[in-house]
Amino acid sequence: MSQSPRHATVSMLVQNPAHFIAFGAGSGLSPKAPGTVGTLWGWASFVVIQHGLGPGLQTDVIWAGLLVAGWLVGIWACTHTARSLHVADPGSVVWDEIWAFWLILWLMGPVDWVGQALAFAAFRFFDAVKPGPVGWADRLFKLRPGEAIGWRQGLGIMFDDLVAALCTLVLLALAVAVRQGGVSAGLLS
Q1: What predicted TM-score, i.e. pTM, was given to this entire model?
Q2: Would you say 120 and 43 are in contact if contact means Cβ atoms under 8 Å apart?
Q3: Which alpha helices (DSSP H) does 1-150 contain, by range?
Q4: Average pLDDT, the chain
Q5: Count of beta carbons in the 10 Å neighbourhood of residue 98
Q6: How far is CA 152 from CA 28, 89, 94, 139, in A?
């Protein structure tokens, strides 16, 4: 017998570290566009963390470690929170957006706020519309009939945003290549 879905609440947020992470420190509790609000939180937190760390190789190593740990913790937190809400992919779970946007900003950095804003718009498009490979990734780990919410769904919550991040990075790289004279210009010079 399946349980009725629950709504994310502030009390859930503060009662469990998995929920605090999955709800993006509360950004996922937004009544409107929680994925967008979570991505904005990811953007703001990236800027603060990056400013605190400063430039350099040591910062890149720290970011790589944060992203690896964030992926693993994210699967756990998203799985736990999806189970608690009785929903396989709850909209209030936004750690996947935060993590994916951190990945984008780290890989494309350093870049000014205009480049970051373009990355934000492209990522939100890929994450919300789910064209092509993002739609495939979203369907890959969907709940099967009779299956209980488990680690597959937590992985799926994270995975489609990873694919959306990669699509964003490819699109932005192509835009830069075209702006600089075309993709073949760099290959033939």
Answers
A1: 0.93
A2: yes
A3: 10-15, 17-22, 34-53, 57-85, 95-108, 113-129, 132-140
A4: 93
A5: 27
A6: 21, 11, 17, 11
